[in-house]
């Protein structure tokens, strides 16, 4: 934490009319006894009083108290095994009342039950090399996406972890980030060290593989009017677009929380690029 943040904001005497907002330090997460922090995860739902930090081989569940400037560790778990195991990334599941967490260490993916702080599944050798990122499908509670240094993006059903349900091999270097669209889970973003952002349409494993479901009342009305039901073939999985505006490794991709058709990507050289889902695909999904 920079020292100037702790002492309050510094206003310029020449520009008092455009003074910056004061940043209020709420609390410190003191996990120095547990090692270096790999990531911090806010609870997907709730009052914002719980978060998780992954430090070396420790999972720490924090309780942020309103009446105190200190945060307390509510519970914790330790990853046991041979060698110096360290978490590289994690994701708090928005499903199951936010009681599950998934983590990555080396080439393995592990699921955790936060109520007992114990492992509930482990995908050994999920990727051929280091696992970089994870994301849960927001609409299908058992579906998970992962990416790694083997240039692959994999989709898993955690009820059957023997094999991924789908694998993408469109990138030519390490894949650093993978994100499901919050509203339309067939839209998946990936960012890679090959300087590219790829937008994929993974409709076959989405929550609506056949498009929007037909309402039973509409179907009965059509039958009463003598209209024949037209069989709608499912859309095929495909690469929608490849974005090459970056000139360096793309380390992060994110969907907008306000506009489901807007997304951003960030590369090592500091370039932030904002793009939109192609209009033709947008209306095909909506209509």
TrEMBL record:
Keywords: Repeat, WD repeat. Residues 1-21 are annotated as: Disordered. This is EIPR1-like beta-propeller domain-containing protein. Pfam families: Beta-prop_EIPR1 (PF23609), WD40 (PF00400). The keyword Transferase does not apply. InterPro entries: Beta-prop_EIPR1-like (IPR059104), EIPR1 (IPR040323), WD40/YVTN_repeat-like_dom_sf (IPR015943), WD40_repeat_CS (IPR019775), WD40_repeat_dom_sf (IPR036322), WD40_rpt (IPR001680). It comes from Anguilla anguilla. GO terms for biological process: protein ubiquitination; regulation of cellular localization; regulation of transport. Residues 22-199 form the EIPR1-like beta-propeller domain. Belongs to the WD repeat EIPR1 family. WD repeats lie at residues 124-160. SUPFAM superfamilies: WD40 repeat-like.
């Amino acid at each position: 934490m920079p020292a100037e943040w702790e002492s309050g904001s510094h206003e310029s005497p020449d520009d008092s009319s455009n003074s910056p907002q004061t940043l209020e330090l709420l609390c410190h997460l003191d996990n120095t006894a547990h090692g270096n922090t790999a990531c911090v995860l806010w609870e997907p739902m709730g009052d914002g009083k719980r978060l998780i930090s992954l430090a070396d081989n420790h999972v720490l569940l924090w309780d942020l108290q309103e009446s105190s400037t200190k945060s307390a560790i509510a519970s914790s778990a330790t990853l046991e095994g041979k060698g110096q195991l360290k978490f590289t990334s994690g994701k708090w599941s928005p499903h199951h009342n936010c009681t599950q967490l998934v983590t990555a260490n080396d080439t393995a993916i592990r699921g955790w039950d936060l109520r007992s702080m114990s492992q509930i599944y482990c995908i050994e050798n999920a990727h051929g090399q280091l696992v970089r990122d994870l994301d849960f499908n927001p609409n299908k509670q058992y579906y998970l996406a992962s990416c790694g240094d083997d240039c692959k993006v994999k989709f898993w059903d955690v009820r059957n972890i023997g094999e991924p349900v789908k694998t993408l091999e469109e990138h030519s270097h390490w894949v650093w980030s993978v994100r499901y669209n919050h509203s339309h889970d067939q839209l998946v973003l990936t960012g890679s060290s090959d300087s590219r952002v790829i937008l994929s349409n993974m409709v076959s494993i989405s929550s609506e593989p056949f498009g929007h479901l037909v309402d039973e009342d509409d179907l009965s009305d059509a039958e009463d009017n003598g209209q024949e039901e037209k069989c709608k073939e499912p859309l095929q999985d495909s690469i929608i677009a490849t974005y090459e505006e970056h000139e360096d490794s793309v380390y992060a991709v994110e969907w907008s929380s306000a506009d489901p058709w807007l997304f951003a990507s960030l590369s090592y050289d500091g370039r932030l690029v904002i793009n939109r889902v192609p209009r033709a695909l947008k209306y095909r999904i909506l209509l």
